[in-house]
Amino acid sequence: MAINYQVKQGDCISSIAFENGFFPDTIWNHPNNAQLKEKRKNPNVLMPGDMVFIPDKRVKEVSEPTNQVHKFRMKNVPAKLRIQFLIEDEPRANVAYELIVDGTLVSKPGDCSDSAGFVSCSLLPDAKEGMLTMIEDGIKTEYALVFGQLNPVDEITGIQQRLFNLGHYFGTIDGKLSEELEEAIIEFQEDFGLQVNGALNMETKNKLLSVHDFD
Is 85 in contact with 96 (CB distance < 8 Å)? Predict the structure, then answer.
C-alpha cells in the first residue's frame, strides 16, 4: 500500500528505498516526490519531518528456462562511502586503515587511502554508524562515523555540521546562530577567498556544498 513516510534523523532516500524494497531512483524520481526533490536537490540530504511518498510495489515477472542456474543482480545496492582525510590541507595519502560498520569489519588487509587522502568502500544503504581507524607510523587515529545524519545546507544545523566536519566549528549542533558559529563562518570565508562578513549568504553556502558535499 502506498504511504507518505515522515523522514527521521538518519534517513536518506537510499535507506528508505532499501527498507521498503525499492531502488532509490524509483522513490526519488516519483512524480509525487517532485517538490521534495526540487527543495532538497540531494537524495542523501533530507531533513527530519520531510515527507517522502512510497508507492505500491509492482510485481515483475521474468521468464527463464527451468533446470538452470540464473543470477539476478539488484541495482543500487550497496551504497558508497567516500570520505577525504586532510591534515593542514594536505591529504593523508596511502595510509592504512581499518573500517568497522555497524559492528562488522568491512575493510580488507592492506586497504589504504588513495593519493588524495580518500577512503572509498561499499556499504549497505541502511548503515548507521562506523569507526574508521587510520594507522600511520604505528600510531592509530580513530574517527567515529555516523551515516545519514547530514542536514540540508539551508538549515543552520546543516551549516554547523559541515563546518564541524571541515574543522572550523566545534560548538553544539543546535540550529542556533551564535558568536562561535559566526567566527567559524568567517574562518571558512577567509580560507576560501570569499567576502568575509560572517553571513550565511548564498556564496558561502555554495562553497560549503562544493567543498564538503563532493561527488
Answer: no
> Who contacts 163 (Cβ-Cβ below 8 Å, separation ≥6)?
169, 181, 184, 185, 188, 208
For the record, the C-alpha cell of 47 comes out as 531533513
Q: Write b or e for each residue in 22-48: b if 16 or more Cβ atoms lie within 10 A of its Cβ, otherwise e.
A: bebebbbebeebeebbeebeebbbbbe
Furthest-apart CA pair in the chain: how many Å? 71
Bridge partners (DSSP) listed for residue 144: 131
What is the distance between the alpha carbons of residues 92 and 117, in angstroms, rounded to a whole number?
A: 5
Name the helix (H) or strand (E) containing 120: strand 118-123
Q: Tell me: the pLDDT tens digits for 72-111?
A: 555 556 788 899 998 888 999 999 999 999 999 999 999 9
> Computed from CA positions of residues 45, 54, 18, 128, in that sequence, does the dihedral angle turn out positive or negative?
positive
Beta bridge partners of 100: 105, 131
Query: Across-strand partners of 99?
Result: 132
Global confidence as pTM: 0.78
